[in-house]
Amino acid sequence: MNRVVIEKSILSENNRIAAELREALTASGALALNFISSPGSGKTMLLEKTLELLPAHTRLAVLTGDIQTDNDARRLLRYGHPVRQICTGGACHLDAAMVAKHLEGWLLKVVQLLLIENVGNLVCPTSYDLGEDAKIVILSVTEGDDKPLKYPGIFRKAELMILNKIDLLPHVPFQLELARENARRIHPEIEIIETSCTTGAGLGQWMRWLEARAAKKVAAASAAATRNHSQPGGWNAQLEVQCQRRTRQSRLHAASVD
Ligand SMILES: Nc1nc2c(ncn2[C@@H]2O[C@H](COP(=O)(O)OP(=O)(O)OP(=O)(O)O)[C@@H](O)[C@H]2O)c(=O)[nH]1
Ligand SMILES: [Mg+2]
To answer: How confident is the model over 90-114, as pLDDT tens digits?
Structure first.
């Protein structure tokens, strides 16, 4: 009983911070995506390919979560965009407070795209809203086509499922069509893209999805701005003040691991 009360209170505080983040991101028109998968499904490699394929002038920022090490941030920093590692020190998921803390000092309103790699885990990250526009679940073909049925939570909440490592299909007993059917049994509207980060298959389709999703966010932000002329307050206003005070020169291209 006590455990339920504590969990409810943790999640409601998380939801409060996530709502502030979402408000700030909506005001700026930035698209925020939360990538969730089991360890090793290819989240970082998909992000590496995405950074490689996006036009160099894209104003994006990346947060990458892990229990330990800044290995993923080091991989992603090679593409010249701002990247920060969130080391959770044991927690099996990111939460909204971690995201807000690691965004400090970045001028959110100039970011078009915020990519968040969650800690490798198909269960816990599902419960934590990070203020994102969409959760994206990555399932690699080495994990088994039954995973949508066994871990329905994330497949229900994800807008898009990326079926990764399809180059390995000849070597594993994974039925693509069955994986699709299983995902749609849990979430009939889920979008599905098949990719191989090693051969590049499907990456064009992924980039088109990303472009369309970003355009949809910008359109929604402009419509909201027309309806409501008030300035964003709370977290975003605080962030602006912090940015002006602390980082006059360090605009987004100041890429380094903190
Ligand atoms: N064959 C093949 N290997 C891949 C593909 N995508 C990623 N990998 C490999 O899978 C391994 C794990 O990839 P990562 O990108 O580190 O996976 P991750 O999901 O970020 O892992 P964690 O951050 O530890 O949860 C690496 O050795 C990648 O090279 C793919 O499409 N095909
Ligand atoms: Mg990773």
So the answer is: 999 999 999 999 998 887 778 899 9
Pocket perturbation via mutation, ligand 1, pick of 34, 44, 142 by most ligand atoms within 8 A of CB: 44
pTM of the shown model: 0.88
Domain boundaries, the chain: 13-215
Which tens digits make up the pLDDT trace of 10-24?
789 999 999 999 998
For ligand 1, what atom is nearest to the CA of residue 138?
Answer: 19
Q: In this structure, are residues 69 and 87 in contact, taking their beta carbons and an 8 Å threshold?
A: yes
Class assignment of domain 13-215?
alpha beta
E strands within the chain? 31-37, 60-66, 83-87, 113-117, 134-140, 160-164, 191-194
**CB atoms < 10 A from the CB of 169, how many?**
16
Task: Determine the distance separating the centroid of ligand 1 and the alpha carbon of 42, expressed in angstroms.
Answer: 3
CA angle, 216 then 220 then 222, to 5° = 120
Whether the CB of 197 sits within 6 Å of ligand 1: yes
Distance (angstroms) between ligand 2 centre and the Cα of 114 equals 16
The secondary structure of 117-133 as a DSSP string is EPPS-SSGGGG---S-S
